[in-house]
Specification:
Elements lengths: L2 E6 L4 E5 L3 H8 L9 E7 L5 E6 L10
Antiparallel strand pairs: 1-2, 1-3, 3-4
Amino acid sequence: MPKYQVTLRNGTSSDRTFDSDFQAINETYRPTASQAGIIQITRYEEDGGLTDVWSHAATGRANRS
């Protein structure tokens, strides 16, 4: 199983294992209070590097007049 690093808005991160990138995103990006602070999910590669899987894009709504 691939290993992932889940980073929270407060700067802390933890390692978790999932079957796929799809599962990592689905399991960690649920709209619950405890998960609301996730800003990035990265996957550990065999060489020890990290590959970005998902990042929370800071978006704002345009003002409509």
